[in-house]
Design a protein that fits this description.
Helix content: 55-70%
Strand order of the largest sheet: 3-2-1-4-5
Strand content: 5-15%
Number of helices: 7
CATH architecture: 3-Layer(aba) Sandwich
CATH topology: Rossmann fold
CATH class: Alpha Beta
Shape: globular
Number of domains: 1
Number of strands: 5
Amino acid sequence: MICLDSDFLISLLRGNKEAKQKVEKLEETSKTIVTTAINVLELYIGIVAVDGISGKRIETTREFISNLTILPLDGNSAERSAYILNSLKKIGKTIGLKDSLIAGIALEHKADILTRNIKHFERVSGLKIETW
């Protein structure tokens, strides 16, 4: 299973050629492609800040998201995320709440994460990272 991070989703929605090619390669491997509720939130935060709650971009994003499996923030992933957040805070290498939540959800569901945000996610023990 591979979890698409926000940077990848944004690039894909913007029509980035590399992102499109990466999705095609992933589909060939028959890996399950997912994202998290937190990544969806990040997409909507960016769009609503600029366009409000209506318009072409939000409709396109809604349609795109409807075709993805969205991993939820449930009790187990919340607990794992809290552990990640606090463990990294203790050693002075925080990655922020949203990335801790994304990492916790991905780990709980045994998903690798597809991102260019290697700097943050490489701090999370056990999380497999793929880039594009």
